[in-house]
Design brief:
The protein is α/β, with parallel strands linked by helices. It has 14 helices and seven strands.
Length: 334
């Protein structure tokens, strides 16, 4: 199998999976490989869930493929087969432990790099979420980033919205990644899940704002179904006060049970408020803006946005989650 060829719809296939968008990153890395001018360290920087990890793995496979063409790896040679099986001795990954990359992990990495690659021409190290690296760990890594041992390539990934130490950025070739179009995101979702309807894929793509990884998360945790129920509550204009209070209290309990998924739900609420404001001012908006309260003014929508911001601040202070959600829902219903 050719590991990075064109699919029928024009998308690349990297590491056996369709890869959409990020044409700038694909072209940059493909030219580097074809010319033999591979950087000693790359920083893949962009939003979460837009292909940084997948393209890093594609570059890793291509670097040691015996029959590659640009960024295309053959998928058949011993190196490709070992990499696909997850048993390549000259590829390893450093991931955050309990939310951060620690100095002990960096020291272990430096120790491994002091030895020559086991069997491949180039050893590849993938350091994920480098923005989580603590100061002492970053300082320990700097010299290795600047002058890594021969035949080693380091690939770092980072969220574009997070701070990365400038000393790290300056020692890497930055490869920018961007949010995908809704069309590409929906196409990725239907490729990953053959049973997903086009309508569901388009809705997830819209809510995920160009991040297929985030869309998959929303789908797996059934946040879209919950979000639909929440919208029905927010736009319901019936005046049965007792019923509305009961629904808000019940929905607040369900929101609090989301725990670590609450920030995702807050993002969806913000997206809905933004689209509703667009409708209020006669501008085009997304599908969810059809479920809106046209009797609310811009000032009311901005007040609801402030309510979401306040709820996030209170959660960060470890306030009672259920109480925070109750207050938020009542403010959103005002």
């Amino acid at each position: 199998m050719n590991d990075s060829r064109q699919t029928g719809n024009g998308a690349l296939v990297i590491a056996g999976k369709p890869f959409y968008g990020q044409r700038q990153a694909v072209n940059l890395l493909g030219r580097s490989l074809a010319s033999g001018r591979v950087a000693h360290a790359y920083l893949f920087r962009g939003p979460e869930g837009v292909g940084k990890q997948l393209l890093a793995r594609g570059l890793t496979a291509a670097l040691n493929c015996s029959d590659r063409k640009g960024l295309s790896s053959c998928g058949r040679c011993p190196s490709c087969r070992k990499f696909a099986a997850g048993s390549h001795p000259d590829f390893f990954r450093v991931s955050p432990e309990k939310g951060a990359i620690k100095i002990a992990q960096v020291r272990e990495l430096i120790k491994k790099l002091s030895f020559a690659p086991y069997e491949a021409q180039t050893r590849v190290v993938l350091i994920e979420d480098v923005h989580s690296m603590r100061q002492e760990a970053a300082n320990s890594l700097l010299k290795t980033l600047e002058e890594p041992p021969e035949n080693n390539v380091l690939i770092l990934t980072a969220d574009s919205a997070a701070n990365v130490l400038q000393t790290i950025v300056s020692r890497c070739q930055t490869v920018p990644f961007y949010s995908l179009s809704s069309e590409d995101t929906a196409e990725i979702l239907t490729a990953l899940d053959k049973e997903m309807s086009g309508e569901t894929a388009r809705l997830l793509a819209r809510l995920a704002e160009g991040s297929p990884g985030r869309a998959v998360l929303l789908h797996k945790r059934e946040l879209v179904a919950f979000w639909d129920d929440l919208l029905q509550l927010l736009v319901d204009q019936r005046d049965d006060e007792a019923r509305v209070i009961g629904q808000c209290l019940l929905m607040a309990e369900q929101m609090a049970a989301l725990k670590e998924d609450l920030p995702q739900l807050f993002s969806l609420i913000r997206l809905w408020i933004r689209d509703s404001l667009c409708i209020t001012h006669g501008q085009a908006a997304g599908q969810d803006a059809l479920k809106t309260r046209k009797d609310w003014s811009s000032e009311q929508y901005f007040a609801k946005l402030q309510a979401v911001n306040q709820a996030e601040k209170e959660l960060s202070r470890n306030c009672n989650r259920t109480l925070v959600c109750e207050v938020l829902l009542f403010r959103l219903k005002e």
